[in-house]
Design goal:
This protein is of the alpha/beta class. Helix content is about 25%, strand content about 20%. It has a 7-stranded mixed beta sheet with strand order 5-4-3-6-7-8-9. The chain has a two-stranded antiparallel ribbon with strand order 1-2. Strand 8 (about 255-265) and strand 9 (about 265-275) form a beta hairpin. The structure holds S-adenosyl-L-homocysteine. S-adenosyl-L-homocysteine binds near residues 132, 133, 187 and 211.
Length: about 290
């Protein structure tokens, strides 16, 4: 990285500099996954796979050591490219979103044993009955949020359900400021340790109940819920800017992706987009 003035948000590759290779160090006996768990759109089943394990960061090489030890060639660029091509085929057209998906090293957000599945278009377990979301749906939600009257410009966005921090990293490339809330303390810590080595300056992680939103920093141009409730909490609707867009899965076993736009101070419009499958939105913190 040079000493030049930095413009935010920084691209991850810009932050890393050319010499940095985001590959995880591999052992001589190649990293084969312990379990084939990846199937698209099955967040709850996938979440249940590794219920009692420790979060990924606890088992991973320390970030600083990872930078030094990386010796494998860059392979994740190519597999990530294939993932992005699939997302494009599934209908995501927003170039800025596709570029962000190409930039963020998803394999660093899952435990090493699952790293080889990181670019399959599927949700994967991250512990505590939760999942990293399916790449297609991450891209789709961000595309929908960006499709606003300001040509995609997003100042401040809020994510409910940080999980391992992957979607927050993608959001950091399309919005000026990203706030992300997680209700499970160890996952909040996991996201912090996953994001730290990427040195992304415009993400703020918060431990708390996202159903209450983040009134201290509201209003938001965009809000994304990464967990499904039976309805979108009223407090979130009130924390949107006029013209702001909220994208959320709604439902229990049968879920639909809902887009809500704030039309005026007292008016919101709502649209149903497509079926989806997310882990449940829950109140309170643990
Ligand atoms: N954004 C993640 C997906 C995480 S899964 C990604 O990048 O892939 C959804 C997350 O929402 C879980 O970690 C779960 O604990 C969290 N969650 C559920 N209800 C919540 C609430 N009320 N407030 C904050 N987080 C919540």
């Amino acid at each position: 990285m040079t000493g030049k003035t930095k413009r935010f948000p920084l691209s991850l590759s810009a932050v890393a500099g050319k010499s940095v290779n985001w590959e995880r160090p591999t052992s001589p006996t190649s990293p084969s996954p312990s379990k084939a768990v990846a199937t698209p759109q099955t967040a709850t089943q996938n979440a249940a796979q590794h219920v009692n394990r420790k979060p990924a960061a606890a088992m991973r090489t320390a970030p600083a050591a990872a930078v030094v030890e990386r010796q494998t060639p860059l392979i994740s660029d190519a597999v990530r490219h294939a993932m992005v091509a699939r997302i494009g085929k599934l209908g995501v057209r927003d170039d800025k979103v596709l570029r962000a998906m190409q930039t963020v090293p998803r394999h660093l957000f899952v435990e090493p044993a699952l790293a080889s599945q990181a670019y399959i278009d599927a949700s994967l377990p991250i512990g505590y009955h939760q999942t990293i979301s399916q790449p297609y749906i991450v891209a789709r939600m961000i595309e929908v949020m960006r499709n606003n009257a300001k040509g995609g410009e997003l100042n401040r966005v809020l994510e409910i359900g940080t999980g391992c921090g992957y979607q927050a990293a993608v959001l950091s490339l399309v919005a000026k400021e990203v706030y992300s809330i997680e209700r499970i303390k160890p996952l909040h810590e996991l996201a912090k340790s996953n994001l730290r080595p990427l040195r992304i300056a415009n993400i703020r992680l918060h431990y708390g109940d996202g159903m209450l939103g983040f009134p201290q920093v509201a209003p938001f141009d965009g809000i994304i819920l990464a967990a499904a409730g039976i309805e979108v909490p009223q407090s979130l609707l009130e924390q949107m800017t006029i013209g702001g867009r909220l994208v959320a899965p709604v439902g229990t076993r049968h879920q639909i992706l809902q887009l809500i736009e704030r039309v005026s101070k007292f008016e919101w419009s709502s649209e149903t987009l497509e079926e989806c499958h997310f882990v449940p939105l829950r109140a309170g913190t643990v």
